[in-house]
Amino acid sequence: MSARTRCRACGNPKPTRTYLCPPCWRQLPDEARRLLSHTRDRARAMARLRELHHHIDSGQPLAELEITP
Question: What is the DSSP string of 14-33?
Answer without folding.
Answer: EETT-SS-HHHHHHS-HHHH
